[in-house]
Amino acid sequence: MTSQYNETDRFAATALRMLAADTVQQANSGHPGLPLGVADIGIVLWTRIMRHNPAEPTWFNRDRFVLSAGHGSAFLYSLLHLSGYPMPLEEVKRFRQWGSITPGHPERDLEHGIETTTGPLGQGLGNGVGLALAERMLAARFNQPEFPIVDHYTYVLASDGDLMEGVSHEAASFAGNLGLGRLIVLYDDNHISIDGPTELSLNDDATLRFAAYGWHVQRVDGHDMAAIDAAVRAAQAVTDRPSLIACRTHIGFGSPRVDNAKVHGSPLGDEDLKKTKETLGWPAEPRFHIPGEIRSYFEPLCKKGSEQQAQWLALWKRYKKAYPELAKQLELIMKGELPKDWEKALPSFPVEKPLATRVASGKVLDAIAPHLPMLVGGSADLTPSNNTKPGGSQSVKKGDFSGSYLHFGVREHGMGSLMNGLALHGLRPYGGTFLVFSDYMRPTVRLAALMGLPVVYVFTHDSIGLGEDGPTHQPVEHTASLRLIPNLVVIRPADANETAGAWKAALDRSDGPTALVLTRQDMPIQTPAESLVSKGAYVLADAADGKPAVVLLATGSEVSLAMAAREALAAEGIQARVVSMPSMELFEAQPAAYKASVLPADVPVVAMEAGVTALWGRYIGPKGKAIGLDRFGASAPYKELFKQFGFTVENVVKVVKSVL
Fold this sequence. Notes:
42% of the residues lie in helices and 13% in strands. It is an alpha/beta fold.
């Protein structure tokens, strides 16, 4: 295929428009406006620009396409079907129905050609930045002279809504600062949002804004295929900056509702769909009509893609012979695997002086980072506090992507979306901030859990132990709120050894994210070097006769309080078992017999955690009690705060006696 465009290309765009419109109409649900408006962009990208193989959607060096405007999913499903991806027409017809592979917003499905889950606007753009960053980092690390083994582009189709959301500003600023030259964002500039004309809420000039971020910017007619093609090729030629192409389009192109907000989020209806087809010269019936010439038009894509993949595979074969060690590392990343026996590098901590779990986490990273080439990470401008930079690691900078440490800046939301993009490319990302600021990145945490991405969050300063900074920075409710997210494992280790176990549990996960919740204050080392974090909870200290009168159930910094209270109770003739529960999620995954052996049904439980008590009811039952903090904290030295809020041995003993 050449870059010349003719009536056949425009006919293909019409076919794409009509397939998407029929799809939305049959479901009686969806967003037809965007597919009608951006079909020309889709034809240019998928038939002339992108390197991709519909017959092998997971080819490693394929160009990535992210539909950040996920409400236009009918556009993507239709394009995948027409292009020859394993997206059957029957599944397109089952759009938004139970059990289909064509949900209302795209969900990560590499086997069918969908790179990432989009829905909340702006997330796809952030994922795109992460994918483009991963490409640059992998290229810097693995490419060799005459072996451009990693050199793909990342294309993002974004809407007005994407550019309004704050996460897109954070991600775009980050991308501009690093000069991600293989990132190309096509902005569907249609001047319409749900409320009506965008001027009701948006009057800034996106091209000027992105230019200020350090991007290369262009404006084109979004319905002129030759102009779109030329703009993309011009963007490809700019190697030291990401590119934004503002494509002036008309939402609902060809329909009676063109340039009208009503076409955004509801089907055209039978009458308007018929009129649209008349306007565009398409037969009104049957629905889902795909002429033979359209099949012929898209058919060469598979052959072209297979040839491109075959060329890369031949290069990869020669690369493996020339650089076997590098090839082994890259192969692990491609497969999403960790090196064999990496866990032998995990440190153990002797019972000597107390150590904050955030500091212990830093020591763990120092030990394991040299053995994990896929491990990349950083902090939201809190590196000295989060202890996230391994010794000897190099920072990623503009023009030098060979390092493994990322300075995300004060951009928690952007950091989360970038980490998801890095994970989508096979890297194992981690990112640090204060636990209280997990609020700013919660949407990205949720999407990582939804996609099953092995992302690690290093959340430090985990409680009122933060002290003098006061309630604005004391995350009393955050650990509990994170535990509510399905498929997110939350681990709050008691000491340095449990912190090492927490990192092992996090990196052993390949099907979802993990949040490490770490202390600012020093904690005594009381758990065994081979901690049982993977079990979620375990008996740390038991009654002398193995028959406790009460179970002291604790997590994180409160485990040391439970241990001290156990001694005080023993002095009064009350035998107590201490159970450390670093992770509710991991404990719930254990067999029922194991859980019953740790928390016997006939023994009362007193739970303690320096946070809200809402989730402890499942373990304490109707006869137990929870010592927690169902209010905001206060500003004072942390030891005073623990005293004032009842986290003392005396109060634990008092509560135990009231239970017994």
